[in-house]
Write a structure and sequence with these properties.
single chain; alpha/beta; 218 residues; 2 domains
């Protein structure tokens, strides 16, 4: 049964290309639960739509620039809006995806993803969950297979702060320890979990919390 337009969860699309906006409109046309409520071709206009429409989901194009989009996401979150943000882009790599999530994005997906994957992303985020395009990490097989139960309390704290995007000096200040001590903790974390690198550590945390979809899309 089709829901009334007023009962659907709303989506605002902020993209550099009008054709991409029209593509999203076509994808959601007739969708039982989601509807495009507005569109913008600049970050400033997108922020205004968030303020006036309070959409459920805001889809923003990574092509506006990595740092501007991250700052913009922080602005959306900092102003107390309940709108969830999905970042999509023609080219998104693993490091960029993780930085977007650390900035506050609830979803990251490629524009070239299968239509089913795009819909799954929007539906999951609209329901209050996180979603990341698993194919962003298809070449990363070294994310660790051992859980974090074997970590000490301090090591778990360090791992959590790394997931938030903090650098060693910032972690040291937050925990009241020396940067050199942070390096030692990270060495032990990598050895115990089998994870390789900071991005692998952040990725393993996302997987443990179920923020990555179980299925892959071709």
């Amino acid at each position: 049964m089709m829901r009334s337009p007023s009962l659907k969860k709303t989506v605002v699309v902020c993209d550099t290309q009008p054709v991409a906006i029209e593509g999203m409109r076509a994808l959601l046309a007739g969708h039982p639960d989601l509807a495009v409520a507005g569109e913008a071709t600049s970050l400033m206009a997108g922020m205004e739509l968030v303020r006036t429409l309070s959409p459920t989901v805001l889809v923003v194009d990574k092509s506006f620039g990595l740092q501007p989009v991250m700052d913009w996401i922080a602005g959306v979150r900092g102003n107390g809006h309940r709108t969830s943000v999905v970042v999509w882009g023609t080219s998104v790599n693993e490091a960029e995806a993780l930085r977007m999530v650390q900035a506050g994005a609830q979803g990251v997906v490629r524009k070239s993803a299968a239509l089913r994957a795009l819909l799954d992303c929007l539906q999951m985020v609209a329901a209050g969950n996180s979603w990341m395009d698993d194919l962003l990490f298809q070449n990363n097989d070294k994310t660790g297979t051992v859980g974090r139960s074997g970590l000490t309390t301090r090591e778990q704290q360090v791992a959590e702060l790394v997931e938030q995007g903090m650098k060693n000096k910032e972690i040291a200040r937050a925990l009241g320890i020396c940067p050199g001590t942070v390096k030692i903790h990270l060495k032990h974390i990598f050895e115990k979990t089998g994870v390789r690198g900071r991005y692998g550590l952040a990725l393993s945390g996302l997987k443990e919390r179920g923020h990555l979809p179980a299925a892959r899309y071709n």
